[in-house]
Amino acid sequence: MKFYGELLALFTAFCWTSSSLIFENVARKTHPQIVNFLRVCIGTFMIGIVCLFTKRHLFFPLDVPLNDLGLLLLSGFIGMFLGDFFLFKAYVQVGARITMLIMTLSPIVVALIDFIFLGVELSIFQIGAILITCLGVIIVILKPNNSKNKLSCNFSPKRLLYAFLATIGQSLGIILTKLGSSSYDSLATTQIRLIAAIMGFGTLIIIQKRGQELLLVLKNHNNMFFIYCGTFTSIFGIAALVESFKYSNASIASTISSISPILIIPISIILFKEKIKKYEIVGAFISIIGISIFFF
User: Other C-beta atoms within 10 Å of 200: how many?
Assistant: First the structure.
């Protein structure tokens, strides 16, 4: 099929948009760490089933090279435990729409880490793309204060910090994944990262003594339905993106999969009756343009 890879990347964008909205809704009703714990447990199981039908035929990643295992577990701890810990806090504090816009900075953070610590050079186009993407985010989170003749923040800096910390965590996780999975199966790599997150969130629930609360959530069929749906869409969004790289240019697929901050705008207006300002729409489009230039 023509444009099969591009359609898979678009499917990824829709999946990630849906999952972010679902998890924002659930995290406002249930403690975020419990939602996260159940999400990574369910995600590990779902990927295991898919892996049974791939060429490896293994439910768990028992064939992972030992020299890669440590880096992948660390990647999961930083990216899927710490990163998602702050991500779900950001969902509650500033909402999925603003959080996903700030998360467009993740490829830029990855590039800067590559540049500073790994010596990967940035082209003039990539530097320009970084500036454009940052401009789009700044347009949304800052506004001119004419009375004081300076810029002020549309959101509490403390609340925005959660989204930026989630972006940094995800970016560091990506770097460590690249270092630890150069030749290993992509889905199995994701499963190892999820297992690290299970250990992190599981330990947190034990320390915070939320076992009873966890049991109550498990008995709540309505919440569990949405957690299953959110996990399914996010996990298979990842799988679709990995598959899209086989059929299309990676730069094009990555760009298409990054348009969630735009897709989420009409959904927020139609379903959630949010009043979205014009500069927020402009900022989202500018950020996506910056990301598009960056990947090319």
Answer: 22
Question: How do residues 49-84 score in pLDDT, each as one tens digit?
Answer: 989 988 889 999 999 988 889 999 999 999 999 999
pLDDT tens column, 123-144 = 888 889 889 999 999 889 886 6
Distance CA 100, CA 110 (A): 16
For 102, the token pair is 């700030």
Quickly list H helices, the chain: 4-27, 32-52, 66-75, 83-103, 106-117, 124-141, 157-180, 186-207, 211-219, 221-244, 250-257, 260-270, 278-295
Give the phi and the psi of residue 144 in degrees, each rounded to 5: -70, 135
Within 10 angstroms of residue 121's Cβ, the number of other Cβ atoms is 7
What is the reported pTM? 0.88
